[in-house]
């Protein structure tokens, strides 16, 4: 395939509306919803809108080798590219590349920033054409279904009818499940990792704490902070700190930090960061603020809270996958208490009830929810094995 | 014993320095550290200072029947009395009373507000005699050891040499362990519940999030908010919301709220409280602010973070209890992930290594850490049984 349908790959200039460094976005962009706007689950419409994405590898002549990588809450489309703000390698650089788990010598890998995001895809920090000012809270509330619809339009734009595979962890896994449920005919294989078919009460609660932290910051200004040339940095940092604890496990925190003191011999008897774990958390909060938009955080957490494949299927999760031909590999991690194995097992049970082709692996690790982003050899070999065998089956099907 | 050493029981007038309704404190007060100030672990001194406390039942002629009830982070001395601000019954009203687990027909029960608290005992919201203004961050950082020293002075003041029993959950349990370690000769029996001999990295992390939420609120004003006639309400509410999630279990949240919507038939597609769990959390945050001081929250969480009976005993927890004659009953709850059974078991192992008299019970419940405050019949019968048998032994010892 020629990629002539795509715009050039401009390293776009910092966006003055962003008020800070988070605006520096590079990569490919597609303008979608031009002929007809996207109808959202809320009933609102959105369009035209931009989707920012990256690709790795080459689409084969049969357009059969596309892999969609779906990112998590605070992720972005720089899955295997240097992040334009932080300068860090892609968040799945270990998995995506020549000869790697998602082998770019074999697959055409697409990763797009989700709808409502802040790294190039249209979201609350972008200009509202109706007012000429940043959307802020005038941006419509979006769902995982809306994110997946936007990804579907991106595939149309790229001329890709069927995905060989959709893969992602956490909220990325929710998108994979949504793909499998809403567009099974476009999906040969699916790898939902460390995820859930609906967000739990505890996870909604943690998200609500983060949102309240942001909205409590006077610099949030009812969501219109960009208009005011400011940003709710302190509130967003607190939201990130609270969330970050949930991404780790207690044993990992103990192993990494324990009660070790930060740059001192004895307790300081003050409210400075006495302990290394405090210093680490503060750093997590302050560095996150440099790369993420607070309103995007509100919208994306809301989309996760709203995700419920039971409710969407009249209370029956197997119905979500009725008659599916997609091959599934569900992965969970033993120390993940945010999306514990029990939640992933519910997906497996529903797939079994729907007579789907599914394998399930629980990886033994102390790294918590974040394990899907880390160097976990057993995780990598599990996904690699599944992708290889699914690819063999896919080639057989294409040839037949 | 006559209680003539105590001041009258004045329903004290609201304290103008408090800036809001949290100042209404009733109950008994003792002025301590008058002859010599209290030397704190930080090296600072404090005195004279006030300890607010409540008592239930009557001290026997041998002064042998005193039970010290130690409260948790956001608790107070109204263990079995109506709270003067909220009008709610005491937090351990189910346990303390005539014929109850801690039988006031038999025992003289004392519960005092901890040092650094905000319900009558001297803390950061009180006037600093050196400046004539509220302490704020000029209040010295205190430790669990300092809290226990203040309680020891209160016992001296009440003419009580030996406690029959010290009992408490969470931070209350830390005080019980500190009593057992620092003053074993004054303690016949000890019931540490849902606690730890040192605060874990994860728990320090959660506390740090709460502190950052408070300090991020511009109304905190570097801790001098009372001077400014304001309070960091939003920050304190966020801190409480984050903490509150850790007091519950995922199954309990699921059972209580699941994904049920709040006063609506369908999703609102907004950032209002769509889900009952959101509404519940917001209520927890806003009601807490009415009864608690933000700086006290900073100081008391810090005291918990600093608690480490290993470190205090050269890295050996058994040393903390060497040669102890105190009888222990350690209690944990299966679904408590804040102070999990594993942490309580470490206390039991150390007591075993110190050849102490110890029984250990893990209570099966889905109520999480908060189970020690709730109606848990097995928990109540466990404590009741231990207290009865320890009391029989105590009476034998007194007669001998």
From TrEMBL, chains A, B:
It catalyses: L-homoserine + acetyl-CoA = O-acetyl-L-homoserine + CoA. It is an enzyme of class 2 (transferase). Its EC number is 2.3.1.31. Pathway: Amino-acid biosynthesis; L-methionine biosynthesis via de novo pathway; O-acetyl-L-homoserine from L-homoserine: step 1/1. GO terms for molecular function: homoserine O-acetyltransferase activity. It is found in: Cytoplasm. It comes from the Bacteria. InterPro entries: AB_hydrolase_1 (IPR000073), AB_hydrolase_fold (IPR029058), HAT_MetX-like (IPR008220). One of its GO terms (biological process) is methionine biosynthetic process. The active site is at 170 (nucleophile), 336, 369. The keyword Acyltransferase applies. Keywords: Acyltransferase, Amino-acid biosynthesis, Cytoplasm, Methionine biosynthesis, Transferase. Residues 65-374 form the AB hydrolase-1 domain. Substrate binds at residues 240, 370. One of its GO terms (cellular component) is cytoplasm. Transfers an acetyl group from acetyl-CoA to L-homoserine, forming acetyl-L-homoserine. Belongs to the AB hydrolase superfamily. MetX family. NCBIfam families: homoserO_Ac_trn, PRK00175.1. This is Homoserine O-acetyltransferase. The gene is metXA.
């Amino acid at each position: 395939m020629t990629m002539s349908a795509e715009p050039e790959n401009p390293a776009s200039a910092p966006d003055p509306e962003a008020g800070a460094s988070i605006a520096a976005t590079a990569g490919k962009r597609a303008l979608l919803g031009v002929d007809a706007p996207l109808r959202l689950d809320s009933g609102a419409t959105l369009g035209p809108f931009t989707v920012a994405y990256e690709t790795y590898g080459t689409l084969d002549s049969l357009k059969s080798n596309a892999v969609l990588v779906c990112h998590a809450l605070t992720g972005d489309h720089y899955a295997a590219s240097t992040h334009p703000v932080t300068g860090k390698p892609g968040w799945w650089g270990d998995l995506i590349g020549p000869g790697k788990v998602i082998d770019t010598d074999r697959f055409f890998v697409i990763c797009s920033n989700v709808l409502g995001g802040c790294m190039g895809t249209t979201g609350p920090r972008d200009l509202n054409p109706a007012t000429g000012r940043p959307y802020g809270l005038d941006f419509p509330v979006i769902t995982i279904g809306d994110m997946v619809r936007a990804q579907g339009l991106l595939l149309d734009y790229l001329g890709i009818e069927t995905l060989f595979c959709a893969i992602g962890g956490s909220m990325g896994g929710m998108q994979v499940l949504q793909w499998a449920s809403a567009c099974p005919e476009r999906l040969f294989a699916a790898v939902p990792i460390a995820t859930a078919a609906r967000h739990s009460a505890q996870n909604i609660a943690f998200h609500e704490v983060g949102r309240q932290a942001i909205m409590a910051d006077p610099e949030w200004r009812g969501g219109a902070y960009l208009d005011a040339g400011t940003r709710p940095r302190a509130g967003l940092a607190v939201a990130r700190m609270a969330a970050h604890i949930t991404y780790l496990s207690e044993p990992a925190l103990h192993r990494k930090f324990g009660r070790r003191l930060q740059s001192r011999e004895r307790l300081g008897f003050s409210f400075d960061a006495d302990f290394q774990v405090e210093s680490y958390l503060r750093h997590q909060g302050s560095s996150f603020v440099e790369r993420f938009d607070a309103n995007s955080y509100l919208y994306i957490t809301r989309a996760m809270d709203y995700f419920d494949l039971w409710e969407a299927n009249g209370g029956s999760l197997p119905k979500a996958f009725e008659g599916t031909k997609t091959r599934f590999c569900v992965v969970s991690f033993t120390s993940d208490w945010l999306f514990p194995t029990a939640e992933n097992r519910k997906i497996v049970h529903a797939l079994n009830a729907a007579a789907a082709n599914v394998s399930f692996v629980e990886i033994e690790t102390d790294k918590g929810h974040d394990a899907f982003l880390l160097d976990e050899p057993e995780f990598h070999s599990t996904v690699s094995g599944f992708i290889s065998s699914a690819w063999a089956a896919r080639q057989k099907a294409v040839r037949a």
